[in-house]
Write a structure and sequence with these properties.
Strand order of the largest sheet: 4-3-2-5-6-7-8
Amino acid sequence: RIYLKTMLIGIDARFYGSIGKGLGRYTQKLVEYLEKVDEKNQYIVFLRKENFEEYQPKNKNFRKELADYRWYSFAEQIFFPFKLRKYKFDLVHFPHFNVPLLYRKKFVLTIHDLILIHFPTVRATTLSPIFYWMKFFAYKCVIKSAIKRSQKIFAVSKFTKKDILETYKKIPEEKICVTYEACEKNSALENKNADNVLKKYGIMKPYIIYIGNVYPHKNPKRLVLAFKKLREKRKDISLVFVGGEDYFYSRLRDYVRENEVENIVFAGFVPDNDLDFLMSGSEAYIRPSLYEGFELPPLEAMSKGIPVLSSNHSCALEILGGSALYFDGKNVDDIADSVWKILTDEKLRENLIQKGYDQIKKYSWEGMAKKTLEVYNSLKKDAK
């Protein structure tokens, strides 16, 4: 008799939750929804100390284990594979490219983007640029090895799939499966005074909002220059940057001062409860990036009834469709003109808000998990 055996699957969830930012959101939702859609396979979910208590299994077939190895570290490369081999997994899912070179068993991999390959950046560090480029070379080796050795690759968009195929030309197309991310349905705001939340971060209406890091490919400097032009037409408007303080935010603050741009607010890190208020109170959400692997933050803005402005790069066009107002991210005047349109054309605003609500319905975390599970099951070995 032929039957499909139950698999023991490992999930590298060290990015799980808020500590992993976008990767953390994906990993968290992957685990949460696999718990809902898979009653057969057994799972071991690996976490770090920082997020170990954040995940509490709700499915009897899921259990968690500590794997407190820092991302991109020697410990990850040397000790994590030994821990994984102890369990004799049928399959391990790595939700990022940092697959240990020494792990030679069956695994699948999620690639969110190839930003590291296309936009290498020497960050502020006490280490020399030579050491940075050595690390960059090591990253490239790890990514290439992971892509080559994986059984299957999950890409979070058709754009990312195309990027992988163009960058790693020997990879067969059928090895890559597109599994879109999703955004949560809009939840009701807590019962607290929105004005007090804005006051807490030094924000006054009206304002447009940018959320996320400000790495160079995010194109923040052109946004600042576009905002400076916009203020020639409307003095009361503000631009709010939301994101944890780091080297790039420090550099952007300097850039704002050098260009003497007023009414720009750096809100710093904002927890989700407050962020809902900040987003909901804005005139628009703006996304000037030149490259992304998926477009989750704009979808989250749409779920809250906020019109979205986005640069017209390939991934944005794929994910956001006709629900955003697009501009040329390399043209400062075009960015400024687009913001002006959204501030002055009420019919356009209402149209984009409705299209946004329709657009988010196309994406589902449960759908992502089901498609992921199909791939897991396709890799099962038949047994007699």
